[in-house]
Amino acid sequence: MGRMLSEFITTVLALVFLLNALLITPARAADAGTVTLTVNQIFTNNNSSASPNAIFTYQLTPDTVSAPMPAGGGAEGYTFTVTGTGQVQVGPVNFTKPGAYSYQIKCETRPGQGYMIDTQVYSIEIHITNDLEPMVIVYLSNGYKTSKISFRQTYREPLNGLGVIKYPPVFVPPVTAPPTDSPGGTIEPPTATPPTDSPNGTVEPPETTPPTDSPYGTVEPPVATPPTDNSNETVEPPATAARPGSQGDGPNTGDDSDPALWATLLVIDILLLLFIVWLWRRAKR
Q: Domains of the chain, with CATH numbers?
């Protein structure tokens, strides 16, 4: 009885394993070596009067020779479009051989009036294992990895309807209109009138009158009188500035040596004295 139960359990497990193999293997075969890329687009419209359904063109370009391409693509690439804000599925791309394959995706739409185009270039590496299992790695233009492919497109209303102004306008000064003729003739600028002669002749600048003599003689400029000494005050000699390092107003002893030098010598003398005492005590022991 135990032997029959063991055989029954073994048979059931074998059937379950076989059934799982039959159900799972075709699904893997259908997905093996197949890659579909998702491309996102965000369109920012800063003008309510413009259409939000602007169409932008993109290109998937193979960097690897003989790399598989989606249906409709060739050796030079695969072109597709994205409208407004949305996403498209690029693919499927079927791989029949293991290896490493490289691609690039970028926007091919050129900047127009008011349109600013995302210039990001995505590098895509697809590694196919011996079991035709794909592994997709996406890089930004700066070499960093990213988990998705996304472009940002923007529209701004052009200035004055002439496109975005790149440089500030140059100021041109206004042109002055020529003087118009008056009823009596052309207006001429006033002419400077030369000095007229007085009844007695030409007006000359006044002459400087020389100093006149006083009743006591010719007026001479005053002479500076030198200061006189005060008979009640003793003239003191100017104070001599103290030399750097001196004691200022203290008595002048005539010793110009540096106090720091004396302090250093004093310390050396004390140390020498202590050393001699130590030697004496050691010799006494």
A: 31-161 (2.60.40.3050)
Q: What is the pLDDT of residues 216-232, one digit of tens each?
A: 555 555 555 555 555 45
Q: Which two tokens stand for residue 184?
A: 């009596």
CA-CA distance, 42 to 83, in Å (whole number)? 10
Handedness of CA 217, 222, 224, 230 (dihedral sign): positive
What three-state secondary structure class fits 80?
A: strand
- CA distance readout (Å), 157 to 3, 113, 150: 85, 8, 24
Task: Please list, in sequence order, all residues whose beta carbon lies within 8 angstroms of the beta carbon of residue 49, skipping any fewer than 6 positions away.
Answer: 157
Residue 62 buriedness (CB in 10 A; 0-12 / 13-18 / 19+): buried
Looking up tokens 């359990």 gives: 9
Q: Give the mean model confidence (pLDDT) for residues 139-145.
A: 96
Q: What is the pLDDT of residues 179-204, one digit of tens each?
A: 555 555 555 655 655 555 555 555 55
Instruction: Note whether 51 and 153 are within 8 A (CB).
Output: no
Which residues in the chain belong to E strands, given as ranges? 34-45, 55-62, 78-83, 86-94, 99-107, 115-116, 122-128, 134-139, 145-146, 149-155, 181-182, 185-186, 213-214, 217-218
At residue 12, what are phi and psi to the nearest 5 degrees? -65, -40
| pTM summary value | 0.47
- % of the chain residues with pLDDT over 70: 53
